[in-house]
Design brief:
Bound molecules: 6-O-phosphono-beta-D-fructofuranose
Largest sheet: 7 strands, mixed
Structural class: alpha/beta
Function: Catalyzes the phosphorylation of D-fructose 6-phosphate to fructose 1,6-bisphosphate by ATP, the first committing step of glycolysis.
Cofactor: Mg(2+)
Number of strands: 11
Strand content: 15-25%
Pathway: Carbohydrate degradation; glycolysis; D-glyceraldehyde 3-phosphate and glycerone phosphate from D-glucose: step 3/4
Strand order of the largest sheet: 3-2-1-4-5-10-11
Low-confidence stretches: none
Number of helices: 12
InterPro entries: ATP_PFK, ATP_PFK_prok-type, PFKA_ATP_prok, Phosphofructokinase_CS, Phosphofructokinase_dom, PKF_sf
Order of helices and strands: EHEHEHHEHEHEHEHEHEHEEHH
Enzyme class: transferase
Length: 324
């Protein structure tokens, strides 16, 4: 194999640059030319394809976001759109692709493989919602950002004898909320997989208030309640705590990648290039315990999500000393 491409797709995640950098450096060490595709699948159909520069690869390791750009492109499901992409790849004599992104990029990678371009995917998303990988590139950095933010919010809540409702990202996956709650000792947790009703949250904070606890932190996953500010008002009305809501928002997606995200990005990128050199495609790289594995994309589509209910309940119990 002489020429490969690399693209990032879906929501950007810290560590995507480290992965792109490693693809370029490792492929180059293997005497393979690398092309970067700008703005994900969109760049494939618009021929935004450029030969990678090795100095560029060195310079982006520590950068947040994705320097080569990303996009979400639902139209890629259309065969006509993909035919354009394949024609552009052939024009540059690119034989295979490394696709870095979330589960939205899986199908595109599988379909392109079926059309003769071997694709290998890397799990890149802050959400940790890729069932075929224990951890995703970007999760650790986002988690650390969230933990720092919650610690700071706790400082001020504790100073003023208040309660906070904090909404974190994760799409349909509660891992960011769960792990951040564990790391910060959050008092009330409601995740996508283990949801509390608004009334349950109100009741729990009210019960905590009766014990005289000085501050309360409630961590909730996004997309579960119509308005966390309205929820905070309900908490305040019942518990008596002055209650503030914070939506952490896109601050969670940015920032220089953590060492663990860079490690996962670089090692999985090398592993992906190894698969391509071996002539394989239609694979997604995942972390299984401490081991990297390459799974058929089709086999990952029906993999069940890990049930985190027991773990969530255990953490709720850990933090339940104030509940009577
Ligand atoms: O998938 C990453 C993610 O940040 C999710 O956590 C969130 O639900 C979504 O993307 C937000 O997307 P956008 O930036 O398009 O609003």
């Amino acid at each position: 194999i002489k020429k490969i491409g690399v693209l990032t797709s879906g929501g950007d995640a810290p560590g995507m640059n480290a992965a792109v950098s490693a693809v370029i450096r490792y492929a180059s060490s293997n005497k393979i030319e690398v092309f970067v595709i700008k703005d994900g699948y969109k760049g494939l159909i618009n021929d935004w394809i450029e030969q990678a520069d090795i100095n560029y690869a060195q310079n982006i390791i520590a950068l947040g976001g994705t320097a080569i750009g990303s996009a979400r492109l639902p139209e890629f499901a259309d065969i006509k759109v993909r035919e354009k992409a394949v024609a552009n790849l052939k024009k540059h004599a690119i034989e295979a692709l490394v696709v870095i992104g979330g589960d939205g990029s899986y199908m595109g990678a599988q379909r392109l493989t079926e059309m003769g371009i071997n694709c290998v995917g890397l799990p890149g998303t802050i959400d940790n919602d890729i069932v075929s990988s224990d951890y995703t590139i970007g999760f650790d950095t986002a988690l650390n950002t969230i933990v720092q933010a919650i610690d700071k919010i706790r400082d001020t809540m504790q100073s003023h004898n208040r309660a906070a409702v904090i909404e974190v990202m994760g799409n349909q996956c509660g891992d960011l909320a769960l792990y951040a709650s564990i790391a910060t000792g959050a008092d009330v947790i409601s995740t996508s997989e283990s949801k509390l009703t608004e009334q349950e949250i109100v009741d729990q904070v009210t019960a905590i208030a009766k014990t005289g606890k000085r501050s309360v932190v409630v961590v909730v996953s996004e997309k579960m309640y119509p308005d966390v500010h309205a929820l905070a008002e309900k908490v305040e009305a019942s518990s008596g705590y002055v209650t503030r809501a914070t939506v952490l928002g896109h601050i969670q997606r940015g920032g220089s990648p953590s060492a663990m995200d860079r490690h996962l990005a670089v090692t999985s990128a090398m592993f992906a290039v190894d698969q391509i050199i071996a002539g394989k495609g239609g694979l997604y790289i995942g972390l299984d315990g401490t081991k990297l594995v390459a799974r058929d994309i089709n086999s990952t589509l029906n993999m069940p999500r890990k049930d985190k209910t027991e773990e969530t309940n255990k953490i709720r119990f850990l933090n339940a000393q104030f509940l009577k």
